[in-house]
Amino acid sequence: MQPVLDSDGSALRTDGINFDEGAVNVFHVHDVDQVLYVTAGEDIIATESEEIKIRPGDFVVIPAGEKHWHGATQCP
Fold first, then answer.
1. Which domain holds residue 43?
2. What is the DSSP letter of 22?
């Protein structure tokens, strides 16, 4: 995927991702900040020290280098 450049020239990657109910990914890190915006379902985002549930309308910012995982607990 080609990165999109924002106004200050830093890279911003945009993706649309859908998880099946109960599906999660593994711990991983990104070399740029990641922004998640929940459009449907009930989801979870976790770092090594906390887990939170996120719902439609929620934004989450994961800083570059933060080890995390995310996925769906319920689908619409």
1. 18-74
2. T
